[in-house]
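Sample intake sheet
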Amino acid sequence: MSETLLSSLCGEDAWYWLYTSNTIKFNPNGTGEIVSRYELVIWIAAEFERKSLSPKSLDQVVDVSGIGATRKHPQPISQFDIELTLAKRIIPRMRGPETQTRRINESLLTDDVFLPKTYTVRLEKGNFLAPCDAMFPEHEDQYTPRFALRLVFDQSPYPPRHEWKDPSGGPDAMKMWEWKEFCARESADLTKRADRHAWWRNCVVS
């Protein structure tokens, strides 16, 4: 199956570091969203502007067929450079009671966060756990989602430590400035395969 790089990038509900909560999303119109939260605590829920440094690069046709390789052997699909400019405005879907009374976005971040930043990004296909789940593979079970695509940034799209007004507490604990990988295209088939492998790993023969 082939599709454009732009459709691969923007065709997903979100790209996950931690499933459903710490995410980055790209929209076809050149905007996007980035979220950093832990349960009820939200640090970042911001929109951003995206610009390709080589506009034609996102129009290239990429091959996403053959998805399902092992986690140990991801297959690179493409690499591209983009510029992201974080905005202070809160993501529309999160403009509600959970953010109205919280310090969020520019309340926690320095002005340097909202300057344009350039990233080199690699798109890979394979059989991936969300990066947070991959840190604790022993906890994987039949309900742990698996993903067919992964984005790998040369530097985290989250603000570096020195661009937080006060990183002590939650930011220092989470260290989101170290998060460079995000997964998408959840696959029930890959999850089933992983579950079968986990069963064999956990089987004890006496």
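Comment: The chain has five helices and ten strands. Helices lie at 5-10, 97-100, 131-134, 170-174, 188-202.
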